[in-house]
UniProtKB/TrEMBL annotation:
Belongs to the zinc-containing alcohol dehydrogenase family. This is Alcohol dehydrogenase, zinc-type, GroES-like superfamily, NAD(P)-binding domain superfamily. The keyword Metal-binding applies. It comes from Helianthus annuus. It comes from the Eukaryota. Residues 23-348 form the Enoyl reductase (ER) domain. Gene3D superfamilies: Medium-chain alcohol dehydrogenases, catalytic domain, NAD(P)-binding Rossmann-like Domain. GO terms for biological process: lignin biosynthetic process. The gene is MTDH. SMART domains: PKS_ER. InterPro entries: ADH-like_C, ADH-like_N, ADH_Zn_CS, CAD-like, ER, GroES-like_sf, NAD(P)-bd_dom_sf. Its cofactor is Zn(2+). Keywords: Metal-binding, Oxidoreductase, Zinc.
């Protein structure tokens, strides 16, 4: 066994990797393990481009391991299954999100919350073992972490649900922001934010988008079905909305103030952070004490809930609004994602555009 990405494992693979914190992605030959008894091997068809991919390749969170092959919104077709696999068979469409492993025996794993297992294995840049993500020709993964793809859910525009979708769906359920007639704000209309609007509307919730960009208003209301739209820099608009919301899902990827958002909450309201900016938030006590307000966080979702979310999405015809791109457009896509210039998720057409060298 060699130790280079190319020779570490017996099965040759090909993808795009960042080599350093410039984040520039370029072709890489690497290798993946053989298909184990409980493993599913699949050809990657599509992979979404999450802002976490961008944070990761740029080492924003100071945990990058290079070479890094990002991608955790992966949809593909099964090419091989191990002898003990029951969930899927060759030819089935499957998905993999942010997780490819966990200890399977701790309290969190027992409660179907593998995302909070201290030994979980992220799909790429894992701190436990070396993992490579979906900007690649194929994947191999234990069947527990495989999502069975619903028949009538599109593969390309469905792919972003595997991270963006579950990341907003899970806190809606856990924090009880899923009751018809409630009023919930969604901050940041990007990959996560736009699918949050779609899920909340499907649940019968009144939705207000809180954005930095007035140009997104028309689409947010007519295409995504938001009920209202606030521009966060517009003080009179923000003032008029004070104490009107039962909850807020904050998907913002960059530094931004929380206090104006907390003031939009009714008493007992909940602000849920899912965005992961690098700089710590300023969080004074008084705006929370007056109104018994709560600020919480949430990380993706467990495997059971991810399967539930994808079936909910299929039933309600929820898919992401995507820009389908070829693999070699990825560096331009990352530059545009940095500037919030995407409507609303890039998805890489891996099978048709990733050519091995
Ligand atoms: P995205 O598509 O880039 O969307 C982020 C949105 O935030 C932008 O579209 C923009 O919306 C808003 N925004 C950007 N810069 C801003 C600023 N300086 N001030 C205020 N608003 C700003 O990113 P994404 O893929 O949805 O991911 C969003 C964040 O969630 C990232 O930090 C990502 O790492 C994190 N994430 C967390 C989890 C989790 O499990 N918790 C999972 C996936 C992703 P407007 O133009 O509407 O203002
Ligand atoms: Zn993600
Ligand atoms: Zn565990």
């Amino acid at each position: 066994m060699g130790s280079s990405p190319e020779t570490e494992h017996p099965v040759k693979a090909f993808g795009y990797a960042a080599r350093d914190s410039s984040g520039v992605l370029s072709p890489i030959n690497f290798s993946r393990r053989e298909t184990g008894d409980e493993d599913v091997r699949f050809k990657v068809l599509y992979c979404g481009v999450c802002h976490s991919d961008l944070h990761s390749i740029k080492n924003d969170w100071l945990n990058a391991k290079y070479p890094m092959i990002p991608g955790h919104e992966i949809v593909g077709v099964v090419t091989e299954v191990g002898s003990k696999v029951k969930k899927v068979k060759v030819g089935d469409k499957v998905g993999v999100g942010c997780l490819v492993g966990s200890c399977r025996s701790c309290d969190q794993c027992g409660a179907d919350q593998e995302q909070y297992c201290s030994k979980n294995v992220m799909t790429y840049n894992s701190s436990i073992v070396i993992t490579y993500g979906g900007y690649s020709d194929h994947m191999v993964c234990n069947e527990h972490f495989i999502i069975s793809w619903p028949k009538d859910l599109p593969l390309d525009s469905g792919a972003p649900l595997l991270c963006a979708g579950i990341t907003v769906y899970s806190p809606m359920r856990y924090y009880g922001l899923d009751k018809p007639g409630m009023h919930v704000g969604v901050v940041g209309l990007g990959g996560l934010g736009h699918v949050a609007v779609l899920f909340l509307k499907a649940l019968g919730v009144k939705v207000t988008v809180i954005s930095t960009n007035l140009k997104k208003k028309e689409e947010a209301m007519s295409k995504l079905g938001a009920d209202s739209f606030l521009v966060s820099s517009d003080q009179p608009q923000m003032q008029a909305a004070v104490s009107t919301m039962d909850g807020i899902i904050d998907t913002v990827s960059a530094d931004h103030p929380l206090i104006p958002l907390i003031s939009l909450l009714k008493p007992n309201g909940k602000l849920v952070l899912v965005g992961a900016p690098t700089k710590p938030h300023e969080l004074p006590a008084f705006p929370l004490l007056f109104g018994r307000k709560l600020v919480g966080g949430s990380l993706i979702g467990g495997m059971k809930e991810t399967q539930e979310m994808i079936e909910f999405a299929a039933k309600h015809k929820i898919t992401a609004a995507i820009e389908l791109i070829p693999m070699d457009y990825i560096n331009t896509a990352m530059e545009r994602l940095q500037k919030s210039d995407v409507r609303y998720r890039f998805v890489i057409d891996i099978a048709n555009s990733l050519k091995s060298t």
